[in-house]
Write a structure and sequence with these properties.
alpha+beta, four-stranded antiparallel β-sheet, 5 helices
Amino acid sequence: MKNLEIGKVVCVGRNYADHAKELGNEVPSQPILFMKPASAVVSINEAIQLPDFGGEVHFEAELCVQVGKDLVNASMDEVKTAINAVTLGLDLTLRDLQTKLKSKGHPWERSKAFAGSCVLADWVSPNGFGDLTQVHYQLFMNDECKQDGDTALMLFPIYELLVDISKAFGLQAGDVVMTGTPKGVGKITAGDKLTLVLDEHRWATEVC
């Protein structure tokens, strides 16, 4: 596992059918993609700073992968050897602002790509996670389990996503892919304590 600088973060919307339904959205027939800049990334080892604009902030826990080589129009065989590291992350979303933007047919980035909107835990080796098709992870808020995710429930598995993203945008070594959130997303407020659990790994943070 290499120590790579993040260039961009590619996010996948509605990759779990139950999450799409809980927000009243259509279940997509192809991956919904959007991006966050590197300036959106912060470590889970720091307290989460809530922005002072945009209304309610919601958490969305996601399995994240970092690619270790450039991928452009990649094949399935190429992406199978491209993952440098894995972790969990929080795609923080200004939900009120997102709803307003969607109602006008505008892009989501103002609600998704603000500074601090991509909270990443520490990177761990992908060894031991196989083909990433049966990875279980959880998010706890104030010691209550809010999201219980399993990549087996993804509409678009991770290798398939990497192939698609390599064609849509191209990926460079260090880029991160947030692979979508399961059902159970909700509001965070100052004082909340969040814990992410992946296998034997556990990361905790607090909302300020």
